[in-house]
Amino acid sequence: MEELVRTNDPVLISFLESILEEAGIKHFVADGNMSILEGSLAMIPRRILVDADQIQMARKLVRDAGLEHELRPERGQS
Fold it and tell me: Could you tell me which of 78, 23, 30, 75 has the C-alpha nearest to residue 52?
């Protein structure tokens, strides 16, 4: 799986999950339970991970939604 977005914004996470699900793109929100350990201070961002074979389509959906600035750099780019 590859990282698509990293954020502390629960509304953004919910929105991205919605558009990914609608497009049939399997994804996983990592670090969602870390807030319990950190005391809900939102210091540890959640990561939306997508299967490598669907990452380009997922990136296109995020760009089409006007959220390109939220995307993590593509592999091999800094």
Answer: 75
Comparing CA positions, the residue from 17, 23, 30, 12 lying closest to residue 66 is 12
Neighbours of 50 (CB within 10 A): 24
What is the spatial order of strands in the sheet that 2-7 belongs to? Answer: 2-7, 46-50, 27-30
Degrees, nearest 5: CA angle 17-4-63:
80
Entry pTM: 0.82
Q: pLDDT digits over 38-52, tens only?
A: 555 567 789 999 999
| Joined tokens for residue 13 | 């996470």
Q: What is the 3-state secondary structure (H, E, C) of 2-50?
A: EEEEEECCHHHHHHHHHHHHHCCCCEEEECCCHHHHHCCCCCCCEEEEE
